[in-house]
Amino acid sequence: MLTPLAGHLLTWYWHETAYHQGHHCDFSDNGIGYNRIGVALAALGLDAKPVTSGGKNQGYSVEHFDPEEEYEDGEQVPADDQMYPVGRDTYTVSREK
Q1: Are 15 and 27 members of one domain?
Q2: Residues 24 and 6 in one domain
Q3: Which residues, including other chains, have CB under 8 Å from residue 82's CB and lie 6 or more apart?
Q4: 85 and 10 in contact (C-beta within 8 Å)?
Q5: Closest CA to 66 of 8, 6, 7, 9
Q6: CA-CA distances (angstroms) from residue 57 to 18, 21, 25?
Q7: Which is higher by pLDDT, 95 or 18?
Q8: CB of 71 within 8 A of CB of 81?
Q9: Domain that holds residue 78
Q10: Total number of domains constituting the chain
Q11: Residue 55 sits in the same domain as residue 74
């Protein structure tokens, strides 16, 4: 059973995509002041490391296009050409360029 949020994400054509856990989910303080989130997490007793480094942080990425949508010949459908229906309306996906 989908959660209400997951259902809405599917309805509005959001898809989970690849996400580099080690890069995007490591909130440790890097020692030069660039990332101070680790200091705040430590003060709260929370882990700053990603699961891939033995921590507890698991990140997710969703995009407003389907990275796996293909034409019949196997070629990927560009995001600009992807459309999806919601009710009686049809929408074009949006993607940051």
Answers
A1: no
A2: no
A3: 13, 65, 66, 69, 92, 93
A4: no
A5: 9
A6: 16, 8, 6
A7: 18
A8: no
A9: 1-19+62-97
A10: 2
A11: no
